[in-house]
Write a structure and sequence with these properties.
Layout lengths: L19 E4 L6 H10 L4 E4 L3 H8 L10 H10 L3 E4 L11 E3 L14 H7 L11 E4 L7 H11 L5 E4 L9 H5 L4 E5 L2 H11 L6 E3 L2 H31 L4 H9 L19 H11 L5 H24 L6 E5 L14 H10 L4 E5 L12 H7 L2 E4 L15 E3 L9 E2 L2
Parallel strand pairs: 1-2, 1-4, 2-3, 4-5, 5-6, 7-8, 9-10, 9-11, 11-12, 12-13
Antiparallel strand pairs: 6-7
Length: 412
C-alpha cells in the first residue's frame, strides 16, 4: 500500500470509502492499531458497538490507559483521519476490514468459535467479494480456516488473513512500531495484501501459515503464563520452608544472566494469559500438563494467601484492605483480576474487606486510599502500582508478595 502521498487531510473520504475498517476499533486491541495506521496517513473507520467509547475517542480522549495514544489521537482528529461508526452497514468497502474480536472460552473451558461467526456474519452483506478480512485477536487453532469455510458456504468469496496482535496492554502504540508483525493468509493474495498493510506500521514481518500463526499467539501467552506459575510455585515452596523468597530470588539473579528473566511472584491474570492457556489445554484434549499445572498454581495463589492469613491472624475480627484491583500494575483494566478472587475469598472470613485503586474507574465499591488505610487492620498489596511504593501505610501490617514495599511493615 503506497502511503507516501497521504500527508494532507482528505474530507472527500467518507466512512464507507476509508482506507480500512477496524471492527472493535474502540477497544484495547483496536485503539493502538487505529492510531498507528492513522499516524501513517491512512483514513480509518472505527466500527464499534460501544458508542460510549466512540464518543470518548471523538471528543479527543482515550477511554483507557494507552501510553502515547493521546498525542496520536489529537493529530488524527486534527487531520480528519478517523471515522466513527457503530453499525455493520457503515463499514468501508474500499479497504481491508480488521476484526479484533477473539475466541473466548465458556464455563467448561472450551473455545467459543460462534462469537467470531456472530461478529463476521453481519459484516458479510456489506463487504464486496475480493475484499480482505483480517482476523486480529486470539483464535483457537483452525478458526481461520473454519471462518473461511463458513463464509464460502454463504456464497461469498473474501480474502482471509490472520495477523495476531502481540502487544502488552497499555504499550500497544509503542510496541506496534518496534515489534515484528506475524502475517498469515489463506491465499497468496490475502497474505500479500495483509503484508502490504502491516508493513506500513511494523518494522519487520514474519510470514506463517494461518494455523502456525494461531499457535504462535497461544504459545507466546501460555509460555508467559507458565513463567509466572513457576515463580509463584517457588514463592509458595520458600514460604512453606519459612524463608524469604524475595531474598532468594535476588540472590539467584544477581549478576547471573541465565536467571535474569525470572519474574517476581504475584497475581498472573487478565483477559489473555489464562484464557489462551485454556485454549491450548482444550486443543490438547486436556493433555497439556504444564498449562493445567500453571492454572492451578496461579489461580490458587489468592487462596494460599487467605489460608496463611487465617492461620496467622484472627481474620474474623479484622478489616482487610486490598491495594490495587487492576489485573496488572499501571493499568486501569480490572478484567479477570485475581484481586477480586482474593476479595471474594476473604469475604468469607474477614470482618470486612475494603478495596482501592487509583486507576480503575468502573468499580463503584472502590474507596480512597487514605480511607482504606485508616479503616483497615491488615493490608494486602494486590496490584503493584508505583504509587504504593512510597505510600504512608501508617505502620499497618501488609502482605506484599511482589516485593515492592521497602519501608513498610511487611508480614510476608
Amino acid at each position: 500500500m503506497n502511503i507516501a502521498d497521504r500527508t494532507a487531510p482528505a474530507r472527500a473520504v467518507t466512512a464507507q470509502t476509508a482506507d480500512l475498517t477496524v471492527v472493535g476499533g474502540a477497544g484495547h486491541v483496536g485503539v493502538p492499531l487505529v492510531l498507528s495506521f492513522a499516524a501513517q496517513g491512512l483514513t480509518v473507520n472505527i466500527n464499534d458497538l460501544n458508542t460510549a467509547s466512540l464518543d470518548t475517542l471523538r471528543s479527543g480522549r482515550v477511554p483507557f490507559i494507552e501510553r502515547g495514544a493521546d498525542v496520536l489521537l489529537t493529530k488524527a482528529l486534527a487531520d480528519q483521519r478517523l471515522f466513527f461508526t457503530s453499525k455493520p452497514s457503515e463499514i468501508s468497502t474500499k479497504g481491508p476490514v480488521i476484526v479484533t474480536i477473539g475466541t473466548p472460552v465458556d464455563e467448561f473451558l472450551n473455545p467459543v468459535r460462534r462469537v467470531i461467526q456472530d461478529c463476521v456474519d453481519p459484516l458479510l452483506p456489506h463487504m464486496r467479494d475480493g475484499q480482505l478480512l483480517i482476523l486480529r485477536s486470539t483464535l483457537f487453532p483452525g478458526t481461520t480456516d473454519w471462518i473461511d469455510a463458513h463464509i464460502r458456504r454463504q456464497g461469498r468469496d473474501l480474502k482471509i488473513a490472520f495477523c495476531p496482535e502481540r502487544i502488552v496492554q497499555g504499550h500497544g502504540v509503542e510496541e506496534l512500531s518496534k515489534m515484528p508483525q506475524i502475517v498469515s493468509g489463506l491465499t497468496p493474495d490475502a497474505e500479500e495484501e495483509a503484508a502490504a498493510l502491516f508493513r506500513s506500521v511494523a518494522p519487520e514481518l514474519v510470514i506463517l501459515t494461518p494455523m502456525e500463526a494461531e499457535f504462535a499467539k497461544l504459545f507466546n501467552n501460555a509460555y508467559r503464563y507458565i513463567e509466572f506459575a513457576i515463580t509463584n510455585q517457588f514463592y509458595l515452596i520458600a514460604r512453606s520452608a519459612g524463608l524469604d523468597y524475595g531474598k532468594i530470588l535476588q540472590g539467584m539473579k544477581h549478576n547471573y544472566p541465565r536467571a535474569k528473566g525470572i519474574p517476581t511472584p504475584g497475581f498472573a491474570a487478565g483477559p489473555c494469559l489464562v484464557k489462551d492457556t485454556m485454549q491450548l489445554l482444550a486443543f490438547a484434549r486436556n493433555e497439556f500438563a504444564l498449562g493445567n499445572a500453571a492454572i492451578m498454581v496461579n489461580e490458587g495463589l489468592p487462596l494460599h494467601i487467605v489460608s496463611d492469613l487465617r492461620r496467622d491472624f484472627d481474620l474474623g475480627s479484622m478489616t482487610v484492605g486490598l491495594l490495587g484491583m487492576a489485573f496488572k500494575a499501571e493499568s486501569d483494566d480490572p478484567r479477570a483480576s485475581l484481586s477480586y478472587k482474593l476479595k471474594n475469598a476473604l469475604a468469607n472470613h474477614a470482618r470486612a474487606v475494603l478495596t482501592t485503586d487509583p486507576l480503575v474507574t468502573n468499580d463503584p465499591s472502590l474507596l480512597p486510599l487514605d480511607e482504606v488505610i485508616s479503616r483497615s487492620d491488615l493490608l494486602i498489596l494486590c496490584t503493584p502500582h508505583r504509587c504504593y511504593k512510597d505510600a504512608d501505610l501508617k505502620g499497618k501490617p501488609v502482605v506484599d508478595i511482589w516485593g515492592l514495599l521497602e519501608n513498610a511493615n511487611v508480614v510476608y
